[in-house]
Specification:
Blueprint: E1 4-10, E2 13-22, H1 26-36, E3 43-54, H2 56-71, E4 75-79, H3 83-91, E5 100-101, H4 103-114
Parallel strand pairs: 2-3, 3-4, 4-5
Antiparallel strand pairs: 1-2
Length: 122
Protein backbone atom coordinates (compact mmCIF):
# COMPACT_ATOMS: atom_id res chain seq x y z
CA UNK A 1 0.00 0.00 0.00
CA UNK A 2 1.34 3.40 -0.98
CA UNK A 3 1.98 6.07 1.63
CA UNK A 4 -1.15 7.92 2.64
CA UNK A 5 -1.31 10.79 5.07
CA UNK A 6 -3.78 13.20 6.57
CA UNK A 7 -2.74 16.57 7.96
CA UNK A 8 -4.84 18.30 10.59
CA UNK A 9 -3.78 21.69 11.85
CA UNK A 10 -5.42 23.38 14.81
CA UNK A 11 -3.91 26.71 15.69
CA UNK A 12 -0.20 26.04 15.98
CA UNK A 13 -0.34 22.25 16.27
CA UNK A 14 -0.15 20.04 13.17
CA UNK A 15 -0.96 16.33 13.47
CA UNK A 16 -0.01 14.10 10.55
CA UNK A 17 -1.45 10.59 10.42
CA UNK A 18 0.60 8.34 8.16
CA UNK A 19 -0.40 4.92 6.87
CA UNK A 20 0.92 2.39 4.38
CA UNK A 21 4.55 2.35 3.31
CA UNK A 22 6.92 5.24 4.01
CA UNK A 23 9.34 4.34 1.26
CA UNK A 24 11.29 6.27 -1.34
CA UNK A 25 9.04 7.62 -4.06
CA UNK A 26 6.69 10.34 -5.18
CA UNK A 27 4.26 10.02 -2.25
CA UNK A 28 7.08 10.43 0.28
CA UNK A 29 8.42 13.48 -1.54
CA UNK A 30 4.89 14.93 -1.61
CA UNK A 31 4.60 14.48 2.17
CA UNK A 32 7.91 16.27 2.74
CA UNK A 33 6.89 19.18 0.52
CA UNK A 34 3.44 19.50 2.14
CA UNK A 35 4.90 19.57 5.63
CA UNK A 36 7.48 22.18 4.66
CA UNK A 37 4.58 24.41 3.61
CA UNK A 38 2.96 24.40 7.06
CA UNK A 39 2.61 27.89 8.39
CA UNK A 40 2.44 29.00 12.00
CA UNK A 41 3.14 25.52 13.36
CA UNK A 42 4.75 25.34 16.78
CA UNK A 43 4.36 21.58 17.18
CA UNK A 44 4.49 18.85 14.52
CA UNK A 45 3.14 15.44 15.58
CA UNK A 46 3.70 12.50 13.23
CA UNK A 47 1.42 9.55 14.04
CA UNK A 48 3.21 6.47 12.69
CA UNK A 49 0.85 3.84 14.14
CA UNK A 50 -0.52 2.75 10.76
CA UNK A 51 2.81 2.45 8.92
CA UNK A 52 3.50 -1.04 7.61
CA UNK A 53 6.98 -0.37 6.28
CA UNK A 54 9.74 2.24 6.28
CA UNK A 55 12.97 2.26 4.29
CA UNK A 56 16.10 4.41 4.16
CA UNK A 57 14.20 6.99 2.11
CA UNK A 58 11.53 7.25 4.81
CA UNK A 59 14.13 7.54 7.55
CA UNK A 60 15.91 10.20 5.49
CA UNK A 61 12.73 12.24 5.21
CA UNK A 62 12.11 11.95 8.97
CA UNK A 63 15.65 13.19 9.62
CA UNK A 64 15.20 15.99 7.09
CA UNK A 65 11.95 17.06 8.77
CA UNK A 66 13.67 16.98 12.16
CA UNK A 67 16.37 19.35 10.90
CA UNK A 68 13.80 21.54 9.11
CA UNK A 69 11.61 21.78 12.24
CA UNK A 70 14.54 22.59 14.54
CA UNK A 71 15.64 25.41 12.21
CA UNK A 72 12.14 26.91 12.58
CA UNK A 73 11.80 26.27 16.33
CA UNK A 74 9.05 23.71 15.74
CA UNK A 75 8.82 20.84 18.22
CA UNK A 76 8.57 17.54 16.32
CA UNK A 77 7.28 14.34 17.92
CA UNK A 78 6.87 10.83 16.57
CA UNK A 79 3.92 9.07 18.20
CA UNK A 80 2.77 5.47 18.30
CA UNK A 81 5.26 3.97 15.83
CA UNK A 82 4.07 0.57 14.65
CA UNK A 83 6.10 -2.37 16.02
CA UNK A 84 7.98 -2.71 12.71
CA UNK A 85 8.83 1.02 12.54
CA UNK A 86 9.90 1.02 16.19
CA UNK A 87 12.24 -1.94 15.53
CA UNK A 88 13.80 -0.05 12.60
CA UNK A 89 14.21 3.12 14.69
CA UNK A 90 15.84 1.07 17.46
CA UNK A 91 18.11 -0.85 15.05
CA UNK A 92 19.34 2.41 13.51
CA UNK A 93 19.64 4.02 16.96
CA UNK A 94 17.29 6.81 15.88
CA UNK A 95 15.27 6.43 19.08
CA UNK A 96 17.99 8.58 20.65
CA UNK A 97 17.47 11.27 18.00
CA UNK A 98 13.68 11.57 17.86
CA UNK A 99 11.16 12.35 20.57
CA UNK A 100 8.96 9.25 20.54
CA UNK A 101 5.86 8.84 22.67
CA UNK A 102 2.34 7.53 22.72
CA UNK A 103 -0.39 9.76 21.37
CA UNK A 104 -1.81 10.12 24.87
CA UNK A 105 1.53 11.34 26.25
CA UNK A 106 1.87 13.84 23.40
CA UNK A 107 -1.64 15.18 24.00
CA UNK A 108 -0.97 15.60 27.72
CA UNK A 109 2.22 17.53 26.96
CA UNK A 110 0.39 19.72 24.45
CA UNK A 111 -2.46 20.42 26.88
CA UNK A 112 0.04 21.38 29.56
CA UNK A 113 1.74 23.78 27.14
CA UNK A 114 -1.59 25.44 26.34
CA UNK A 115 -2.49 25.81 30.02
CA UNK A 116 0.54 26.82 32.05
CA UNK A 117 0.35 25.85 35.73
CA UNK A 118 -1.17 28.33 38.12
CA UNK A 119 0.54 28.87 41.39
CA UNK A 120 -1.19 29.81 44.60
CA UNK A 121 0.20 32.86 46.28
CA UNK A 122 0.07 32.93 50.06
Amino acid sequence: MELRYQIEQLHDIAVVRCSGRMVRGEALEDLRCRLEQLEHARVLVLDLSQLDQIDAGGLGVLLHLRRWSRQRSIQMKLVNPSPFVLRILEATRLTAVFEISSLEEALCILRAADHPPRYAVA
